[in-house]
Amino acid sequence: MVQFELHNRNLAPEQVSHAHDFHQLILATCGVTELAMEGQGERVTARRGCLIPSSRHHEYQGDGSNRTLVLDIPVKHLAVLEKGSEIERLFDKPRFFTVPPALNQLTHALAHQLEQCPALQNEIAVLLLRALYMYLQDEPKQVADKIGARCISERLDLERLDAWLDQHLADDIRVEQLAALCALSPGHFHACFRELTGVTPLAYVQRRRLEHARTLVRHSALSLGHIAMLVGFRDQGSFSRAYRRYFEIAPSSDR
């Protein structure tokens, strides 16, 4: 069976500079990583992914709070994969690409599946590669849609919203506040946000609260009650229920 290495990582804030003899796919579920290849630098986020061809030198530095899917792809293994030659062409050159809502949602689901069932990493990796190939193959057909999406994204700066949310997770966050940050009416903001991300604003806020909570659960000694307060839940009970629904594991067990 074809074997790929897929990991759900937290990329640390230390700068790393290297090259390797395999292709690499980088997709983030949250947080930011600064990445540069051959003079081309961008930020890898939930909205922006990266393809790194084999042997290409690159540098990266995470923000310490990211969650990032890193897929290592040995070149020889692509030859025996269905549509392997077409997928190989995706790595003709270093490439950053826009991650659409559907692919972002799949990335979240597969990252969660990988944590639950690490033994399935090869099957998950193949599914991820095929999904990416299908999306990038369809890119030329989506030009008109992208023009419309660009108009939306110019008003909805999701990275700016994320930064604001991260500073106010403990507060009561309302759609009206988010809409005001984008100079949009609440109704228009809600529609544009769902078009851009595939989820409602409040569902997005809840997801961000829980993702930050998981980092604290796993990497801090804070009590669950304190974590619940820091990410905006009224009590530990409601936090634990929401955590279990989203991650399918209780925070106490996850710790």
From TrEMBL:
The keyword Transcription applies. InterPro entries: AraC_XylS_family_regulators, Homeodomain-like_sf, HTH-like, HTH_AraC. Residues 159-255 form the HTH araC/xylS-type domain. Pfam families: HTH_18 (PF12833). Keywords: DNA-binding, Transcription, Transcription regulation. Gene3D superfamilies: Homeodomain-like. Transmembrane segments: none annotated. The keyword Metal-binding does not apply. GO terms for molecular function: DNA-binding transcription factor activity; sequence-specific DNA binding. PROSITE patterns: HTH_ARAC_FAMILY_2. This is AraC family transcriptional regulator. The lineage of its organism: Bacteria, Pseudomonadati, Pseudomonadota, Gammaproteobacteria, Oceanospirillales.
